[in-house]
Amino acid sequence: MTNIAVTTWSLEQTAPTDLLPAAAPEGDVRIVRSEVPSPEFSRFLYASVGGDIRWTDRLGWSYARWREHLERPGVETWVAYDRGTPAGYVELTPGDDGVVEIEYFGLIPAFRGRRIGGHLLSYGTARAWDLAERWPGLATTKRVWLHTCSKDGEYAMDNYQRRGFRLFDTKVEEEADVATPGPWPGAFPA
Q: Which residues contact 65 (CB under 8 A, 6 or more apart)?
């Protein structure tokens, strides 16, 4: 197996006023919180959004591991729907001392390039900033951060920066060059 160099950029916002929201796209696009922890649905979103950009770290998770993660206080999944069909999602994971990570964010390939991503990122970031209002006992959000890498979509970094995220760290590491898994084997051309 060959290795590839992967650049990972970490970005942050340190105040709710850092958020520069995108306009909502035209049409019937809605963003709804998935309030019932559902390993099946979360794995569907993860595999469908990340299948063509080599998201593989959670593919081996068991049902129990998914449930354990989703039931942690403050973990939230917000799903964008286009005319009733899931188009993408943002997953928020609280850390210590008011730090919230946008752990996963993206769109299913068929919904990219339709201005849904900027709107979903804006909405998800706003929900990261007000996370403690929905979860008594969590610290008030002081920082929202995320990471993206050179394997992600070509417009990812631009979207994050246009929403007000600022770069705070860059790393380059060698990773195994794994095949694009798709939402199921063979879903995308190699």
A: none
Work out the percent of the chain whose per-residue pLDDT is above 70: 96
In 3D space, the residue among 92, 120, 107, 160 whose CA is nearest the CA of residue 23 turns out to be 120
From CA 56, how far away is CA 149, in angstroms rounded? 14
Own/partner long-range contacts of 182-187 (Cβ < 8 Å, ≥24 apart): 182/47, 182/51, 182/52, 183/44, 183/47, 183/48, 183/51, 184/47, 184/51, 187/51, 187/52
- Pick from 84, 76, 70, 75: nearest CA to 33: 76
pLDDT score recorded for residue 185: 66
Question: What single DSSP character describes residue 87?
Answer: E
- The structure's pTM equals 0.94
